[in-house]
Amino acid sequence: MIIESRAYARAAILGNPSDGYFGKTISIIVKNFGAHILLYESPELVIEPQTQDINQFKNIYELHDQIVLTGYHGGVPLVKAAIKKFCEFCTKQGITLPNRNFTTRYSASIPRQVGLSGSSAIIIATLRALSEFYKVDIPKVMFPSLALSVEVEELGITAGLQDRVIQVYEGAVYMDFDKEYLQKNGHGIYEEIDPALLPNLFIAYKTELGKVSGTVLNNVRSRYDKGEEFVINTLASIADLAGQGKTALLNGDRKLLHELMDENFELRCKIMNISDSNKELVKTARALGASAKFTGSGGSIIGVYYGNEMLNNLVTAFKKINARVIRPTVV
Questions:
Q1: Which CATH number is associated with domain 2-193?
Q2: Which superkingdom heads the taxonomic lineage of this protein's source (predicted)?
Q3: For 197-326, CATH number?
């Protein structure tokens, strides 16, 4: 039997990066891009490497281009860490896994390191495949926390629950990561939102702006952990935008949602250094009347647009700065 599982890209509409700091967010799934895991029974446990995992190159320039495109580590460490955490989860739950081995391989179409959560998609797709192969039920509400532990505990990557929640639940989700609730229950409060309430959204991204999100967020983390009041208050203000955004969506107030998304980016700029290239993405969208904020940690933006003419103008304008525009597929 061949098992196939998938997980998709995601984009934060409001609240990020407060999810890693007991905040609130709203996110959508982006089914335009995804990660795919294929798994089948075999005599030994084998993880097949893909192109980005192989350390053989035609020349120094191919090595350089590969690192720029996919980073240093490829996807195999993500798959290995997910398998390890799945095994530990089963042990903690008193589940003895049958003596079965498998061969697995991954593929992903998600642009790497531009804030669309390619790494967590590979992890979640792997956990889904393992759950099916070993007939283990992972409660939906706990699935994101397990996926997060793979990156934080095994790979030392700074990350929050938001990405994993939306990639598990899909659609559109409002998330409240209240500290007391999270520490007591091991998960946040997740409310699914009807995707039909969403306005017209676009995503624009530049693969050349890729970077590891944990690196971007590390400075904020250290300042937060030191108790820097300005950082703590700014993150709280960002989190509050998500609550306002949920009300705006439920009331059909797209103008307010537009304003909140813009404010999210402005607040982020107060506690993070944003590169000129990333600011160019935002400025290009806003110059045409659209809203704009990061989907994640940079490299891609999401915003509200109004009508096909504006969308066409966005496509043209972003092409001039070597960026691509898509309309996110949520359902």
A1: 3.30.230.10
A2: Bacteria
A3: 3.30.70.890
